[in-house]
Design a protein that fits this description.
Strand 3 and strand 4 form a beta hairpin. About 1% of the residues have low confidence. The protein has 18 helices and five strands. The strands form two sheets. The chain has a three-stranded antiparallel beta sheet with strand order 3-4-5. The protein has three domains: 30 residues, no CATH class; 120 residues, Orthogonal Bundle (DNA polymerase, domain 1); 176 residues, no CATH class. It is mainly alpha-helical and 442 residues long.
Length: 442
């Protein structure tokens, strides 16, 4: 009686059916998700940092996710009015590509720009899609609200615009200048109050660095992490029965593409190792001479004065400790002449780049080569020798697709013999092309 408002059973049945149909007209009420989009992003980034701790992704990758979300994805969400997770609708992020292709400022300091690069936008979109799927998995977002997020078409010629590779003629020219880099250093050594031998060692360090980068195909940041314990040498016989020295270098997991073991020219790797041992020996000879000078000439000097003059001084015995021999944990590219807190480190990247620019200035190339061009040159020379792309990709820590996309311009050079001339064919006389002279002889 209370719910159906009748004591007649037949009427009650009819009323119950009408009530049921009326209720079914309205969609079921769902609990509104009041979680902020910012909070959801923070939970996603926490998940990414956990993956990094578990070694599922690198720390650098987790940092890249954080940069994309805080610098571009969250600001764009605010721009389109997404403050809560419940604000996300099917078309919310559909204009992400066009917005950043037209953006006029970028970076922390809002530097001027004519749109972000397609590769940056596409990386953002991959992260954004992964974030939205994360919210769906957490049952905070309806899958139907993700929608389509168009990618940017990337027409960039990476090889020509960013890090062009040396071709054989340019590489020979660069090497001719490079191998003279350690000559005529007398005046330079006196100017910097360094011995000629020390200056020559440092310049040969740079020559070995360039040769190592070219022979190994490593990225610059990968090279800075290689330690002596990551390297080993072996000898194998080639097809002609001659012994060849090979080097194996372990690239550590905290690099761009994670860990791998690459194979390179063992003679180049061995020269780098020997050069480091020679440098430590030279540095210890310098320390012995300095310690002798401290004992003989500065015996009455205050220890604080000595410490200011000699950053490596041990204040207890008023002597500079000798450098220990190179061990497995030392950097392969270590500079033993660094003093103070920077001992047992390699040159700063700006120092290396300064030397690199000196070499390029003498070469006077039209192309704008970078240190990363050494990796591009390594890959290009392997392609010119027609080595399989998947083999090159595995050794260099990249993908076959990326090599095909970035180095496709040299395909014509690889297929030069097939493209240069047409094969002769037997044509009927009527099909032959007859070229009449422009001027008939008088």
């Amino acid at each position: 009686m209370t719910s159906l408002k009748t004591q007649d059973l037949d009427v009650a049945r009819k009323n119950s059916i009408d009530s049921y149909l009326e209720i079914m007209k309205d969609p079921p009420k769902r609990r509104t998700n009041r979680k902020s989009f910012l909070k959801a992003c923070e939970e996603y980034l926490e998940h990414k940092h956990q993956q990094a701790q578990r070694k599922q992704i690198t720390a650098g990758s987790a940092s890249s996710y954080e940069q994309r979300i805080y610098q571009r994805i969250i600001p764009f969400a605010k721009f389109v009015g997404v403050n809560l997770v419940s604000d996300i609708k099917e078309d919310c992020f559909s204009t992400y590509r066009d917005y950043f292709l037209d953006v006029k400022t970028k970076g922390k300091w809002n530097s001027s720009a004519s749109g972000l690069s397609p590769s940056t936008i596409n990386s953002d979109i991959c992260t954004l899609k992964e974030l939205l799927k994360f919210l769906v998995k957490k049952k905070q977002l309806d899958f139907n609200n993700i929608g389509e997020i168009p990618r940017a078409r990337d027409r960039t010629n990476y090889r020509e615009e960013s890090n062009p590779a040396f071709f054989p003629a340019e590489w020979r020219k660069m090497c001719d200048v490079l191998y003279q880099f350690d000559q005529n250093v007398k005046d330079l050594g006196k100017y910097h109050h360094q011995s000629d031998e020390e200056v020559k060692w440092k310049r040969r360090w740079f020559i070995n660095y360039i040769r190592f980068m070219y022979q190994s195909g490593t990225r610059p940041h990968e090279c800075t992490k290689i330690r002596l314990g990551d390297c080993r040498l072996t000898e194998l016989k080639d097809d002609d029965g001659k012994l060849k020295k090979y080097g194996f270098v372990h690239i550590r997991p905290d690099t761009k593409r994670g860990k791998r073991d690459l194979v390179m020219n063992g003679n180049t790797l061995q020269k780098v190792q020997y050069h480091l041992k020679k440098g430590i020996k030279m540095r210890n000879e310098q320390i012995k001479e300095t310690n002798k000078k401290i004992k003989e000439e500065y015996a009455t000097r205050d220890v604080q004065w000595l410490k200011r003059r000699y950053a490596d001084l041990d204040v207890d015995d008023r002597q500079i400790p000798l450098m220990e021999d190179a061990n497995h944990d030392d950097l392969l590219m270590m500079n033993p002449f660094l003093k103070g807190d920077r001992r047992r480190m390699m040159y700063h990247s700006e120092h290396i780049r300064k030397w690199w620019n000196q070499i390029l200035e003498q070469c006077n190339f039209n192309e704008r080569y970078t240190l990363y061009s050494l990796r591009s040159t390594h890959i290009t020379f392997n392609l010119l020798q027609k080595r399989p792309i998947n083999m090159i990709a595995d050794n260099c820590g990249t993908s076959s697709d990326e090599i095909n996309r970035t180095y496709k311009r040299i395909n014509n050079i690889l297929n030069m013999k097939d493209l240069g001339f047409f094969k002769s064919t037997n044509l009927a006389m009527d099909d032959e092309l007859i070229i009449e002279p422009l001027l008939k002889p008088e």
